[in-house]
Design brief:
Elements: H1 2-31, E1 48-58, E2 62-71, E3 74-75, E4 80-87, E5 90-98, E6 104-106, E7 115-121, E8 130-131, E9 135-137, E10 150-153, E11 159-161, E12 181-183, E13 198-199
Antiparallel strand pairs: 1-2, 2-3, 2-6, 4-5, 4-7, 7-8, 7-9, 10-11, 10-12, 12-13
């Protein structure tokens, strides 16, 4: 009888000790704060830049503006960007193209009137909407016509209209008194090597 009581007492003590040890082992795990995690489906936003690279003359009336799409300095391939024009105080899309592996694409545009243009990226699941700086394209006329508009202004104020390959001049043929030459929209004589709006500097 006494032996049985001792066995039961020893069993109770052992069980209590085992439960206490288990509680100590589990407690730190239960009490540790959960680490913050990004909810499923959340996508980081990336600021995307649309950069106007150039708007060189293409033919006698048109231009070939080139857009470039990057994120974090890296080109983005396979995305559509839109060329927009500003009319009546609003921006509206003219055409669009899909970027190549360099993040670039180009379109041909023939302005009916001189106006401002820009590139726009509509955004996607990973990136925000973004637009480029605006750039000005002037209406251009046919070769030899009187309505082609102003192409250059010499440093002395003299203006050059309807500049074409037929009356092409290079910087060596232009007197120093007429330099630098202000380039208006297009550069049919290819005087502005660094594309800053001035030639023969």
């Amino acid at each position: 009888m006494i032996i049985n009581q001792r066995i039961r007492s020893t069993t109770k003590v052992f069980a209590a000790t085992a439960i206490a040890s288990l509680a100590i082992a589990v407690a730190p795990v239960i009490s540790q704060p959960a680490h913050a995690t990004t909810p499923p489906g959340t996508v980081a936003k990336v600021i995307t830049k649309v950069v106007k690279v150039s708007a060189n003359k293409y033919g006698t009336r048109s231009y070939r503006p080139v857009g470039k799409l990057t994120a974090g300095g890296n080109p983005i391939k396979g995305k559509r960007i839109h060329l927009q024009k500003k009319a009546s105080g609003r921006w509206m899309s003219v055409t669009s193209c899909v970027t190549n592996r360099y993040g670039k694409c180009a379109v041909i545009v023939t302005p009916k009137v001189s106006r401002y243009y820009r590139w726009k990226f509509a955004g996607d699941a990973k990136r925000k909407v973004d637009v480029s700086a605006s750039f000005y394209l002037k209406k251009r006329g046919t070769s030899g016509g009187s309505g082609s508009g102003l192409d250059y202004t010499y440093g002395n104020g003299e203006k050059v209209y309807n500049a074409t390959s037929a009356n092409d001049r290079d910087c060596g043929e232009i007197p120093s008194s007429k330099k630098p030459v202000r380039v208006h929209g297009s550069d049919p004589w290819r005087l502005d090597a660094d594309n800053d709006g001035y030639g023969c500097e």
